[in-house]
Amino acid sequence: MEIEEELTLELLPTLDREKIICIVEHLTDVIGVQQKSDLLFVEAEDLKPFLTPIQIRKLLLAFKGENLNDTITLEPCPAASAETSSHPPHPSSSTSTTMYNHYSSSWVSHLQIPWERFPLRLSHAITRGDRAHPEDRRSMVRIVVEAMQVHCRNPKHASCEEVAKIIVNRYPQTFADFTEKGERLGCGHYSLLRSIKSRVEHVNRDNTTHRLRQTKRTRNEEDCSPNSNATSPKKVRCLVDSYGCINWQPVELPEGETPASLEEKKHILLTIFNSEGPGAVERPDVDDFMCLTYIFQRQLINSCPSLSVAEIQEQWPFLFTRKGMDISERLDQALITKGRRIINYFSSQKLKWNLGIRTLIQQIESEEVLTNNKVGTAAILLMMKYYKEDEDSLFVLADEASTRMSLEAESNLPIAPRLIMLGQSVMTATCWMVSAEGRVIVELDKENTFADAMSVFFGSFYVLNLEYQESACATLELIQRFFVRINPEEGTKCTSKVGTSRKTGTTVKQKVVHINPHVTNFLQQLTEFEWKTSN
Fold first, then answer.
1. Residue 359 CB neighbours (<10 A)
2. Strand arrangement of the beta sheet that strand 439-443 belongs to
3. What letter would DSSP give residue 29?
4. Of residues 534 and 67, which shows the higher confidence score?
5. Exposed, middle or buried, 367 (CB in 10 Å: 0-12/13-18/19+)?
6. Is 176 left (phi over 0), alpha (psi -120 to 50) or beta?
């Protein structure tokens, strides 16, 4: 399509083809762009779900700066043309033009959601502002998809998302994705979108006439090579660096401070650390100086090209302490209360799980984890088994007598952050360290707990602008959204373009999504389980 070529080659050449196609579908199917002159009326809000603010401004500027009076060619999708071939063309069309017809360009805006057909119990829940019962929610999805198929037999992802938004925005208390604290989970409509799209695919499973997907091409080994992009260093900062942060890069100096005064405080901090060590982080003046020099810390960490962890630690050693890396005060209690819920979810349905999960449940029960301070460890290990992620993608088990120097010399520590567990097993470890880029960056005191260690480990991703490792991305996002309650509407902390198939074990290309579907699927199942057991 011509509009796709313009977006790809001229305006936003760095976007991948899949996102370009999604934007084109959104502009034509939802916004109603039918000819080039219509692009003048596209607003920033129309593109917000797909692009960064800078990309949107660049695109809008190009739309308004070009001569947009020529007719643009937009070919209808196979499903739409097959479905509407018996209908007359749109009044503004002619046989020589290929603009979208009425049925495929703006059907979402004409869709009438049959609220009156919803189950009676669901209608009462909507009136009271209660959550929808899982059974009623599934019935509602079937009814909505049936109404959508009157307009389009196989609605695209963008169209399904618009419908999900309409429903959630109208009755958020009943249909939106919320945490148990009442905070919106991500964009708020992801689980409903997934349910609608799954239903669409289900009802079209045997109908090849209305399939929209292109023929699957054969992948070369180079396409799926984990090192295909590894040779090109990161040149500019991207959204993943500031993902989940509320003060990623301050721009104004603290009141009453100058660059010279802050530089002086930085040197004082280095002097104190060199003379007293990391324990001095508890001094009030160190705490004050670290807060005042925060703008300098972020400027160094966010600089391009990125500095190594060792270089950052050399200039800001107090940052590499528990106090410097701990970004969440709520994780300690959350690991206990929410950890118990996860353990209860798995142990109450033992026969449902595979051998690995059942064996771990038996170990948890035999060691009486629920009566001591191992609840958080057990819950995270269960989630890793559930997501089929290896323990060593998060943890490194080491002997209790190991030191920083021995671990760095003998353990071949990985580049991505790891929580080093000192003990006989991950479950029974009593001392912890955190590593990144092949070296130990934080040693925790013996009186610290697993929750303290996990908070430092998890905080290192945000303090140091590190991405989640693909091998543990589902577990890390669950910790982020469920335990720590960091719920950005868009983006992800794992942007890996390749991954390991959980079914075949082979390396495959993967689609970058705003929220990990494995995480939302589990949270929905947990909510439904607790709903059933409480009623």
1. 12
2. 395-398, 418-422, 431-436, 439-443
3. I
4. 534
5. middle
6. beta
Residue count (the chain): 535
Bridge partners of residue 436, in order along the sequence:
439
pLDDT for position 499:
63
The secondary element (H helix, E strand) that includes residue 499 is: strand 498-500
Answer yes or no: are the C-beta atoms of 118 and 139 closer than 8 Å: yes
* Whole-angstrom distance, CA of residue 139 vs CA of residue 481: 28
Any idea what DSSP says for residue 515? S
Contact criterion met (CB below 8 Å) for 269 and 293: yes
DSSP assignment of 185-219 equals -TTS-HHHHHHHHHHHHHHTTT-GGG--PPPPPPP
Helices (H), 316-393: 322-325, 331-347, 355-366, 375-386
pTM here? 0.61
Over residues 6-35, the mean pLDDT reads: 67
Cα 473 from Cα 467, distance rounded (Å): 9
Give the Cα separation of 287 and 53 in Å (integer). Answer: 35
Distance between first and last Cα of the chain: 53
List, for residues 281-306, the tens digit of each pLDDT value: 999 999 999 999 999 999 999 888 88
pLDDT at position 496: 66
* Long-range contacts (CB closer than 8 Å, 24 or more residues apart) made by 188-193: 188/489, 189/161, 189/164, 189/165, 190/514, 190/515, 190/517, 190/520, 191/520, 191/521, 191/524, 192/141, 192/164, 192/167, 192/168, 193/160, 193/161, 193/164
Residue among 21, 63, 23 nearest 40 (CA)? 63
Rounded Cα–Cα distance for residues 203 and 145 (Å): 9
Cis bond before residue 305 (omega within 30° of 0)? yes
What is the sign, positive or negative, of the torsion defined by CA atoms of 425, 427, 429, 433? positive
Cα–Cα distance measured from residue 65 to residue 202, given in angstroms and rounded to the nearest whole number: 44
432 alpha carbon, distance to own chain's centre: 27
CA separation for the pair 58, 41 (Å, rounded): 15
Q: Report the candidate in 477, 511, 483 with the shortest Cα–Cα distance to residue 495.
A: 511
Burial of 152 (0-12, 13-18, 19+ CB in 10 A): buried
* Distances 378 to 338, 381, 474 between C-alpha atoms, Å: 11, 5, 16
DSSP 397-447: EE-TT--HHHHHHHS---SS-EEEEESSSTTT--EEEEEETTEEEEE--TT
Structural element, H or E, at residue 500: strand 498-500
